[in-house]
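We now fix the convention by which a protein and its fold are recorded. These numbers are not coordinates but entries in a learned vocabulary of local backbone shapes. A record is reproduced here so that you can trace the correspondence yourselves:
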Amino acid sequence: MGERSAVAEGLRAYRLIAGMWVRSSMTYRASFVVTVFGNLTVTGLDFVGILLMFSQVDSLGGWSLPEVAFLYGLSVTSFGIADLALGSMDVLGARMRDGSFDTLLVRPAPVLAQVGADRFALRRLGRITQGAVVLGWALVSVDVDWSAAKVLLVPVMVVSGAAIFSAVFVAGAAFQIYAQDAAEVQNAFTYGGTTLLQYPPSVFGKDLVRGVTFMLPLAFVNWVPAAHVLGRPYPVGLPGWAAFASPLVAVACCVLAGLAWRTGLRSYRSTGS
């Protein structure tokens, strides 16, 4: 009961803080629209790069353009949702250096909710929109014999992928507490992870594919379930049921990230600023 109450309190605090930042950003609506459009354009350059590659080749690692677009759309949309919700976690190190993190510890609200909602930026909707557009095009262009299970698997992948990326954000923030910063290390696994997943696993070495399957299970964002949808071989010879394991992997990642966050908070020592 206490745990449920703490979650509800955290969600309420997150909603109030995020709402404050949304109202602030909407004060200058023209600037907001320009910023969202700029964000959409910048993130879209990633897919432009893929299009340029396919202007020179017919396939990438044996995958066609619609299949790669399917991976890209899933990765970018899932990451965009997590980035919208928790993208401010990477400034935690700066907060610890200037002493403002200590202020969050004494406020009557869960620290994770405060850090996650800090500087909540609706401009990040541009990334989600761009990823969703590419995903939509891929869904109508890819050569797939659709079944009810495969159709249902698409939204499951997006939600589970967002949860997995969110867990990586939280775990990265916990690591920043231990390391007293290391934001770039966190970005390597978050922004670097979504870039990695935009390409088929067949273009990477087997050791790297094993690492993002069993150590940091980002492969369950799209590689593994997408292999089932597209009728492709599973990475590293996983069993057939693994395609439907993304929700379980997401729950496990969130639980582990929560434990890491709690442990990090307990070990935190004030800068004395």
